[in-house]
Amino acid sequence: MSEISRFQFVAEAGVGYAYYAKIEYKNPGSSSWNRTGSQCSVSLGLTRDVNLYDISEIKEGAEVRFFMDVKASSKDRTASEVFTYKKSSVNYAKYNAKGNLITGPKIQYKGLFTYQNPFASQVENDKDYSGDISYLQFIALFGIGYAYRVRLEYRNMTGTASNGQPIREVMWHRTNSLGNVSLGVTKDVHLCDLSEIKEGAVVRFVMDIIGGVTTTAKEVFVYHKKANYFAQYNGKGTTLNPKIEFKGRLECINPNDLEKINSFKGAATVGVGFAYRLKAEYRNPVGSSWDSEWKTTKSFGNVALGQVKFLKLVDATEVKEGALVRFCLDVVAGTTKSAKEMFIYSKEASYMASYDAKGTTLSPTIIFRGLQISQYPELKDDAQAFAIPVSDKVLGLDKMDHTYVVMGGRAFGCFGRSADGRAITPVSKGNKQVAEETETSSYNANMTYGVHGVCHQMANRILWTAQLLVDEAQAFNVSVSLFGPYGKGQWNIVKLKKYKSKFFETIYALYQKGLSESQFREQSTEAFYNIYLKEKYGKIPSNMLPLAIKAQRKIEKIDSSLTETQRLKLVNEIAADFQNSCKQILTKVECKKLLGQELEAKPFAFNKSDLKGVKMAKPAVKKTK
Fold first, then answer.
1. 121-251 has which fold?
2. Is this structure's pTM higher than 0.85?
3. What is the CATH number of domain 3-114?
4. Residue 5: pLDDT above 90?
5. For residues 447 and 79, what is the distance between their CA atoms, to the nearest angstrom?
6. What is the pLDDT of residue 602?
7. DSSP of 138-174
8. What stretches of 318-363 adopt beta strand conformation (E)?
9. Which one of 10, 137, 448, 560 is least enclosed by Cβ atoms within 10 Å?
10. pLDDT at 389
11. What does the pLDDT look like over 507-566, one tens digit per residue?
12. In 278-418, where does DSSP find H-type helix?
């Protein structure tokens, strides 16, 4: 027997009577037929539907058949066809009445047909649809001649088949109006806000023209709350001839996942075989999203080999606050390429995105150098350190980094260059005013180069309030071993509200003890070894620290009347001897980790007797209140 959930009764041309439609049924477990009362009255030209799920006495699985109760006659008829009632069936049985009261009424079975049963469901394949989305966006761009109401049609998911495919309702449901869209208006509809639409439903857009017709989009999407895409639609045409324009299934970008910047930095260093125009691409904010198409700013200058230029987004007036932006490399006499990284434009952002280029005119490559502290506008206290490889041999090393600090949008040169370096620390809140009080000129922090320290020590002093060290700089541990983490000499050390680690707390405790400059340098070096390096590496050789203290004392004995060149020559010799001494007591792995390079053995510089007189100070334990 065929399954049905509905009967349909008609009285087509030629019928000479009216009738009552009744249903006979035999519920599961019953052996006798029962009959309902009249479900509808049918006369010439009428069509009536009778849903079996609306008749409470008929149970799921019952056998059912049509009984025609002819009005004003005893010539009633019972259909010969018997069906099984199933509430979710999409089938209905159709019957017509024929004949007249004289010749006798007749039942004509018209066959089985299908309809959109609200209780019906079917197994579907999501690949048959236009993809998953979490919301829809509706716009009305220039050229539209009407306003429209936004409605959605949906079919909810009712289960999952054994093969994992979704089971959904067969019948489409339609929402009430979700808002009006007219010229220049953008409307976002987040499906998670509509309680009637469930996770896994399929949805489509219905454009209800105000004062006009209604039209339905052909695209059907699968709703997932966590989907990374949305569907965008525009209205076109006139009230009498409206058109739905599908703008695309666009990627949802969570602005909370993107960094904010206020500028781009474009460079062309070694390895670039072309010049390029510095541009930015942008998508201005629209509602809770952005324009669907990328647009390009004007050129902010050409960048050729060895040059650096900046693109301040505030000067690109077409780019709005909150826009989605990315770097654009427009090769002169070549192609245009877009960076894959995206950012949010904010005038008050702390960062700029730094880019470089390499390759040839026909095959250009964009290199993302990372985020750096922006020089636009003047920022209050954001601090970050940068490093530049040094070509000359310094401190007896073939490899060493020069360091400098940018804080509050201002560069602190630290005895050398203050631009185009790579970031070696995260951005941290410092105190620009304290940093400016620390430095007595553009290139020192009350230090003499090679006597009190080098750029590493100055950078650390500037970074005190940010609680950062330039420990990722090449040869940093060597310079600390020779001069201490903060060098020798007075500087503007201030009490901090909260200390990020025991190391910084210990340094301030040492400062409060009123130690001599030499004692402070040695004990801060000890804190660096016993606290900072142990926190970073877990375990370090205990016999390296005495060598560092001995090297510091040798540097301190250098005649102050020597010229800077003579003095630095001796410092380099002491540094080379220190590193060679370390080579004798450290493994190759330890040398690489603690000194930043593998060292070649040289004559042992320190006699074993040199270490006998070195007594290490106890770690400071005094804490600030």
1. Immunoglobulin-like (2.60.40)
2. no
3. 2.60.40
4. yes
5. 109
6. 40
7. EE--TT--S-EEEEEEEE-EEEE-TTS-EEEESS-EE
8. 324-331, 336-338, 343-345, 351-359
9. 560
10. 87
11. 999 999 989 989 999 999 999 999 999 988 888 888 899 999 999 999 988 887 888 788
12. none
